[in-house]
Amino acid sequence: MRIVIDAMGGDNAPAASVEGALLAAKEWKDTEIVLVGDETAIAPYLGNERPQNLTVQHASEVITSDDEPVRAVRRKKDASMVVAGRMLREGSADAMISAGNTGALMTTGLLVVGRMHGIERPALAPMIPTIDDKGMLALDLGANMDAKPEHLAQYALMGSIYRQKVQGIERPRVGLLNVGTEPGKGNELTKVAYPLLEKLPIHFIGNVEARDILMGTCDVLVCDGFAGNILLKSVEGAAGAIFALLKEQFTSSLKTKLAAAMLMPELRSLKGKLDYKEHGGAPLLGLSRLVVKSHGSADANAIKNAVRQARIAIENQLVESISKEITGK
Question: Could you give the domains of the chain?
Fold first, then answer.
């Protein structure tokens, strides 16, 4: 299999992208990895012993976080993200990974890679950590700010298939994000979406409140991109604040520093549970080929885990399985 990485996307590019690609290439020698980006910028991070399964595809332009997505994708034809998307569309790659501008990646997915037949709105589907270590796939968490009930139904079906195919959950529990658990709760979107989800060939468990998601209440959480992105940022912010407070308390005196030293293994384990880098990235479900969005501040480990995630999805024919379920073909 061949996986392309947008080497210039993300806050820590190209260093993190290149270092992560090197780690992945050394671990999975049966996978060809292509770094797409400025050869001059990439070269210093490659080192002297480049694995044979790691190559570089030059791209002279970069889409930044400040660029307007549609304009950037249309005008910057030689941007690393666009070139990677074009390689995916033309069949010279099996998957694409980028930590770059989310809006631009979504636009690249729609305009360059192309939507899956039968899908109206692709969805961004990251994993949210849960206390049972299983995690919860949530979609959409920011690809589309507005959604129709039919879109939520497609999200539910795609999310269920993803957890089955990529993460081996035989009968994923699918929940609908809402302000209460009763079927009649919510706004017009969730009220209309609820019966649509009930009719799908999935294990729909009903409405789920935001306060319960970290407890592992469901395996797949469905919501519109506006509410979902607020949810994601709230969880990330809360986790960051908790660890900042713990650090402040554990460094306030000699006694607490000694206590911290004794608890350090447990604290590292707790931090690991809430670390997005361990999950690699979020697939853009609903595109005709596999596109994985890594976090904007992804480090080398996150990029490597995104490659692992892409490999599993390819091996389990994720895109083909979703397409078959949606179209019946």
Answer: 2-119+286-327 (3.40.718.10), 127-276 (3.40.718.10)
